[in-house]
Amino acid sequence: MKYICIISVLVAILFGSCTKNEFKLVGELEGAGTQNIRVIYYASDDKGGYVVDDVVPIVNGSFEYNGICRHPSVVWLFRSDRTLLNLLYVERGDELKIKGAIEKPFGWAGEGNELQEKLSAWQQENENLLMSGDAMTTSRQALKYIESNPNDKLSTLLLLVYYTNADNRLTEYWSTLTEE
């Protein structure tokens, strides 16, 4: 009986600590009503990867989406007409909660992992710039953060998604980042 208890505890610890290769998005979007959005991201594991392109219904402003990811990924959210709403950073096991107005996607509050929360804060701080669609000015604003915060994981994410490389200095900026 003693061995059965020990084995049961070990099995519970092993399986309880396993994280599934998935993430969950839960959204409350004011003014969204009932419509569809597109969720696009790259799902990968140690053997390879593929692009996921799913349609997700928003019903009365709410949606839920379960995605697959072994490695961290950037999830791009689009309107049904393929205009960008926003992007999110996800990791395996995350449950991200998004809240805000559909017409102000860069003002959304996103929580569920530390990097996503920092990204949401940066986007909210730069909401008007991001809504303007001015890629060059957005790139310069991202570089200000990157240069001031080379040890921050958000700097890596901003470099990858908002920097335009118009000055051909990507390698230079990349080398300033730490491996944290």
Q: Could you give the order of the helices and strands?
A: HEEEEEEEEHHHHH
Rounded radius of gyration (Å): 19 Å
Spatially, the strands of the biggest sheet line up as: 4-1-7-8
User: Which oligomeric form is depicted?
Assistant: single chain
Uncertain parts: 2-17
Helical fraction: 25-40%
**Distance between termini?**
46 Å
Total count of strands? 8
β-strand amount: 25-35%
Provide a concise account of the structure shown.
The protein is α+β, with helices and mostly antiparallel strands. It is 35% helix and 34% strand.
Structural description of this entry:
- With 180 residues, the chain is α+β, with helices and mostly antiparallel strands.
- A hairpin with a 7-residue loop joins strand 7 and strand 8.
- Helix content is 35%, strand content 34%.
- The model is unreliable at 2-17 (pLDDT under 50).
- The protein is built from six helices and eight strands; from the N terminus they run H-E-E-E-E-E-E-E-E-H-H-H-H-H.
- The longest helix has 15 residues, at 2-16.
- It has a four-stranded mixed β-sheet with strand order 4-1-7-8.
- The chain has helices at residues 2-16, 114-125, 127-132, 135-148, 153-161, 170-176, and strands spanning 22-30, 35-45, 48-58, 62-68, 73-79, 84-90, 95-101, 109-111.
